[in-house]
Amino acid sequence: MDSILTIGEVVKRSGVAASALRFYEEKGLIGSVRAEPTGEVGRKRSPGHRRYHRAVLRRIAFIVFAQKIGLSLDDIAAELAKLPPDRAPTGKDWARISSAWSARIDERIAELQRLKRGLGECIGCGCLTLEKCHLVNRGDRAAAAGPGPRFWLGDRPKR
Q1: What is the pTM of this model?
Q2: pLDDT tier at 45 (50, 70, 90 boundaries)?
């Protein structure tokens, strides 16, 4: 049987603030259990006394990692729903849900490289004029390409 951890123990072990743990629980990403004075463990928790199965540490690590690669909380919840809630996931469990992440990480890397090039072109070029800058957008001509910072997203300004 998994050992039961207090919220303080989970905070110390995971490096995630107690407020974040409560938020994750509110969003259904993790679950707590109730520890009875008899030592029995139930599904619902007593107010203010959160206890967690040790397996929650892996779920928290998953959440932190998923956020770092750009997954939204909704995406994270959908992925966590594929994992067992009360036991540590196996290597096979992790492989199944992380296999689709490779393309997403590649997209994120490409986006960051595009942003880095843009910074180098804009700030590093030394032109000091908006006449030559890729970010210039006279007359809002980028609006035709769609919402958002079109040039940063990869659209090129029309000359």
Answers
A1: 0.64
A2: very low
How far is the C-alpha of 69 from the C-alpha of 85, rounded, in Å? 22
Strands (E) in 9-147, as ranges, are 34-35, 41-42, 51-53
The two structure tokens encoding residue 155: 């659209």
Q: Check whether 18 has a pLDDT greater than 90.
A: yes
Highest mean pLDDT among 34-43, 92-101, 126-135: 92-101
Residue ranges of the chain that CATH labels 1.10.1660.10: 4-99
Tell me the C-alpha distance between 118 and 120, whole Å.
5
From the CB of residue 118, how many other CB atoms can be counted at a distance below 10 Å? 17
Is domain 4-99 classified as CATH 1.10.1660.10?
yes
d(CA 156, CA 150) in angstroms, rounded, equals 8
The helix (run of H) or strand (run of E) holding residue 10 is helix 7-14
